[in-house]
What we know:
The protein is an alpha+beta fold and 276 residues long. The protein is 24% helix and 33% strand. The chain starts with 11 loop residues before the first strand and ends with a helix.
Amino acid sequence: MTPIEPTIPITSREYKAMLKPHPLSGTSDSLNRTLEALRRSLLSITDLKLKGEFVFEKDQKVRFWDFPQNWLKDRKNYVLRTRKRKNKTTLTLKCRHGDRYFVQSQITSGDQAKFEEDIKPRFTSLYSYSRKVKASAPRSLKELIDIFPDLKNRIETDPPDSPIQLVRDFTARERVYTGVTIKLSKSFDAECAVIIWYDADDPENVSPLVAEFSFRYPMKKWTKHPPPEPFNTFDGKTGLAAHDFYISLQNSREFADAWLDTESKTKTLYAYEGNR
C-alpha cells in the first residue's frame, strides 16, 4: 500500500487585491462614501449575495523588524512584525513562501499558531505559518529565540550578531474596515476587509500609501449548513465560488479600472522597500 503523506490543515484562505490608494484619500466622511461606492461595485460584478457595509473596525501602528540586509526575510523567509493598538503590542513571527511543503516543515506547536494560504493575482498561492505573542520587538537574536525557542533549529547557518532594527525606520498607521460578507455557498460566508496604510510620522496626511481589499473564510467555520465534504479542510464548491469571484474582480474592466492597482506593492513589500 502506498503511504499517505501527512498534510497539516490550512486554517484559512484569504484572497487579496491591491487597491488604488488615491480614491481612498480624504477625511472620514469622504472615505465612507468611497467605501460605499466600492461595495456597490462589488455587487455589480457578481451574483453572490453581499451583506452589510464597510465600517471602521480598528486603528493600529504596524512595524517590521529585521537584521541589517533584511537577513530574516531575504535569507530565512521570515518576517517579524509588531502591531500596537491602545498601548497593547503583539509580536508576530511569520514564515512565508510559495511552497507549501517548505512552510509546513517550519511548523511547530504553539499558542495562536496559524497556517494560512494567501491568494494573490492572478491566482497565485503564498503560504504562511505564524505565531503571535504579547510582546514588544526583541533587540537581538538571543531575545528573539527566547520568545520563539524552536527558531534556533530553523536558522542554522550564519546567524547575525547585529541588533534587530526597525525596517526602513518606517511605521505604518493601519486603518481596517470590515462589516461586508459574501455568501460563497450555503456553508461559508467570506469576511471582507479594506486595509489602508498611512505614514504614521505624518498624521495630518490623509493620502494613503497603499491599500488592500481582501476576503477570507476560515477552516470549518461554516454556517448552519455543513458542506458536502465536511471531512475536508475546505470543500470544493466553496473554493470554486471563491475562485470565480476573485477572478471576476480582475476580469471586470470597469471594476479593475476604477479600483485595482496592478502595479502596487503588497503591504509587506512596501514596508521593506517603500516606493523604490
